[in-house]
Amino acid sequence: MRLVEIVRTALMDLVGAPVRAGLIDRGGRMLRWVEAGEGTTFVLVAGAGETVLTWAPLFQRMVERGRVVAYDRAGLGASDRNPRSTAESAVDDLAALIRVVGPAVVVGHSWGGLLAELVALTRPELVRGLVLVDPTHEDLFAEIPLRMRLAEAVMMRGIVVRHRLGRARPIISGMAEELADHCANGGATRAGIVAAYEGSYAKASQLATIGVENRLHYRCRR
After folding, report:
1. Number of domains, the chain
2. Whole-model pTM over 0.70
3. pLDDT tens sequence across 38-54
4. Nearest to 86 by CA among 201, 218, 177, 191
5. What is the C-alpha to C-alpha distance for residues 57 and 37, in angstroms, rounded to an integer?
6. Domain region containing 62
7. Quick one: which of 31, 68, 102, 115 is 20 to 30 A from 165 by CA?
8. What are the CA-CA distances from residue 158 to residues 53, 92, 208 (Å)?
9. Binning pLDDT at 50, 70 and 90, where does residue 151 land?
């Protein structure tokens, strides 16, 4: 089963309602999302290196209030990698998604909060409202010492190497279990969330994209 179907099924079991999948062709690479509910459209933009599943603990409550759209940015989860990923391309992808699903209230967390702000500033006609959850300030990462940036880069490369050696699974599985603890009490629903999360970080390229997005923080300005 393709990853997007694994994620869709896991969320459908969680919310107890139909979850639909969609995609956009972004010049030969696919950007994929899931959506559920009806009414006012909310587009969810996850933090750096995170997928649609980061919203799983809130998905059911939000679906009760409107149409909820959550997407995987390029290289993460079920979306294809962008070999020329930049902050601008991330904003362009988000804008392309909103054009397809319609003007929306954009909900952004951390790095996703900054991307949401940039879309609102550059394409205000697409944004009906903004909800910012602990958003990244554009100057924050410029103040982080170089040694900390280098340490982070080494850590991310180490995780990718561990993955290629078959040793990253315990880390990923631990994070999957932690997420599932916030979503479901047990049974098939919990197992589905764990499987979807593990699948979202099953490739070295998916893990490498976490480092790519973290580096984009340092270069981003409004």
Report:
1. 1
2. yes
3. 999 999 999 988 999 99
4. 218
5. 16
6. 3-219
7. 31
8. 24, 30, 10
9. very low
